[in-house]
Design goal:
With 509 residues, the protein is an alpha/beta fold. The protein contains 17 helices and eleven strands. Bound molecules: glutamine (GLN). This is Glutamyl-tRNA(Gln) amidotransferase subunit A.
Length: 509
């Protein structure tokens, strides 16, 4: 495996700025890696024809002595939920097959302006509905740690690309955990920013009150660097916060260096049932807490009595919003059209949506329209919104006593492809610990906490902070990461065993 692709984005950026490596070389190394392993991993739906061109442009600007941003020349993978002018944007759906957007999502435009080099578009569950990438209309992505297992979802493509060294940086979207849970099962880092902290303009909407765009990387600092590039106010997104954000990269560097853990109050939710977690996941979580405690952090039990209703509330609010957002795929405005000779406009619409949407999308549209229908609105959608308020109050009370809250990122390690696909409820329950953050709008980070002792697969710890305090996540995440990587004698991904045909040790299986 080429050494270039093993570099973190931060290290690669440094070598680029020192002229040790060109962006063309870095980009070519990643394109070669994609060619080598993506037939097995299937992290990408589309590989860019313009990557080398973009890399050349950065190299030229650098050679001309232009002042470039801190990550200029570093390659980037982009979840297919984000629209791009030079590559198709399908959101993992047949209904948008080949769809070309007339504009770039704000985060993509910002990435390009910062000199990041788009490598391609990554696979995802259709319209970001799922926890395994198995709901993609284009076939599942496989977990590089074990090709028979899921890479998480909905952003399994972005996480797998980063874990398999196909890209140093990736963008994801997180509506109920789609950045954090894939990070957890692939041994990578994922951040869901504060709601409104990163623009959603040009992100194909799933549930507008929950969606956030964020980074997927191999280190906390790399996530911070990418967040610094894509975050901040965007007049095109009415929910975008006007805040001036601090440098997240500076916070990550401070965390990795200093003793930010001394006196830090870390909340652990009393009501999260220990029994609901795979033993190896719970054990790794407790060990990470002990590492924090050994550095002077205080572990405090907090009560969040309404967390247990989060999954139920989410799976009413999300389908309700999704059914409305997806109404625009009407055979007229975007994408696919199935002609019905002699049929009415409704016949065409119905045939198109029947052929264009997969079973999970149909399930949620039906759920959502039912929950919103007259006579049921108060009982379902209205009640779910009340639960959402109670969860927000749980967070407010807890954050009065602690600086951050910690949970295992998800209840289990990567499950097998096919294991939950016919059991939607058990798939939904995988979102137990990630969903509350979306319902409350607070930021969350998942970092690798180790390998579960029972199956040897990666597992993660999630930190949550009050809204607008994303900076805490980078400080605390980088501090714990530094301690764990030290204890492991190197990054977790370097310790990947050859599980079921892992690709991490180089070469094809
Ligand atoms: N697994 C969750 C769902 O299926 C999360 C989706 C997401 O964050 N986009 O809705």
């Amino acid at each position: 495996m080429s050494d270039i692709i093993r570099l973190t984005a931060a290290d690669l950026a440094e070598k680029l700025s020192e002229g040790e490596i060109s962006s063309v070389e870095a980009t070519q190394a990643h394109l070669d890696r994609i060619a080598e392993v993506d037939g097995d991993v299937h992290a990408f739906l589309h590989v860019s024809d313009h990557a080398l061109e973009a890399a050349e442009a950065v190299d030229r600007r650098r050679a001309a002595g232009e002042e470039l941003g801190p990550v200029a020349g570093v390659p980037l993978a982009i979840k297919d939920v984000l629209v791009t002018t030079d590559m198709p944007s399908t959101s993992g759906s047949r209904i948008l097959e080949g769809y070309m957007s007339p504009f770039d999502a704000t985060v993509v435009a910002r990435a390009r302006a910062a000199g990041l080099v788009p490598l391609g578009k990554t696979n995802m569950d259709e319209f970001a509905m799922g926890s395994s990438t198995e709901h993609s209309a284009y076939g599942p992505t496989r977990n590089p740690w074990d090709l028979d297992r899921i890479p998480g979802g909905s952003g399994g493509g972005s996480a797998a690309a980063v874990a398999a060294f196909e890209a140093p940086l990736a963008l994801g979207s997180d509506t109920g955990g789609s950045i954090r849970q894939p990070a957890h099962v692939t041994g990578t880092v994922g951040v869901k920013p504060t709601y409104g902290g990163v623009s959603r303009y040009g992100a194909i909407a799933l549930a507008s009150s929950l969606d956030q765009i964020g980074p997927v990387t191999r280190t906390v600092l790399d996530s911070a660097l990418l967040h610094d590039v894509v975050g901040g106010h965007d007049p095109h997104d009415a929910t975008s916060l006007a805040d001036a954000w601090p440098s997240f990269a500076a916070a990550a560097r401070e965390g990795a260096r200093g003793d930010v853990l001394k006196g830090l109050r870390v909340g652990v939710v009393k009501e999260l049932p220990d029994s609901g977690f795979q033993p190896g996941v719970a054990e790794s979580f407790r060990a990470a807490l002990e590492t924090l405690e050994a550095q002077g952090a205080e572990i405090v039990e907090v009560s969040a009595p309404h967390f247990e209703y989060a999954v139920a509330a989410y799976y009413l609010i999300l389908p309700a919003e999704a059914s409305s957002n997806l109404a625009k795929f009407d055979s007229v405005r975007f994408g696919m059209r199935v002609d019905v000779p002699g049929g009415t406009v409704e016949d065409v619409m119905s045939a198109t949506r029947d052929a264009g949407f997969g079973p999970e999308v149909k399930r949620r549209i039906i759920l959502g329209t039912y929950a919103l229908s007259a006579g049921y609105y108060d009982a379902y959608y209205g009640s779910a919104q009340k639960v959402r308020t109670l969860i927000q109050q749980d967070f407010a009370r807890a954050f009065a006593d602690v600086d951050v809250i910690a949970t295992p990122t998800a209840p289990t390690t990567a499950f097998r492809i096919g294991e939950k696909i016919d059991d939607p409820l058990s798939m939904y329950l995988n979102d137990l610990t990630t969903i509350p953050a979306n319902l409350a709008g607070v930021p969350g980070i998942s970092i690798p906490s180790g390998l579960a002792s029972d199956d040897g697969l990666p597992t993660g710890i999630q930190f949550l902070a009050p809204a607008r305090e994303d900076v805490r996540l980078y400080r605390v995440g980088a501090a714990l990461e530094a301690l764990l990587v030290d204890a492991w004698g190197g990054p977790l991904l370097d310790r990947a065993p050859r599980l079921g045909g892992s690709l991490l040790e180089g070469g094809a299986r």
